[in-house]
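Researcher: I'd like a structural prediction for the single chain below. Treat it as a standalone chain; there are no partners to consider.
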Amino acid sequence: MSASDKLSAGMDKLKGKAKEAVGRATDDDEKVAEGKADQAKGDLKSAAEKAKDAAKNVFDK
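Model: Treating it as a single chain, here is the predicted structure.
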């Protein structure tokens, strides 16, 4: 997983946590949902990069 990909996934997760917190504080269900979606996007990016790394390791052996 490249550093920029890790950063991108981490930023999505962080942005999502912030949106979710703001949504909860302001009782904005839409903002909470957006935050959870951003976090899921970050998780998906992380999983995809880990899968790419695993596949690369298999083919490099």
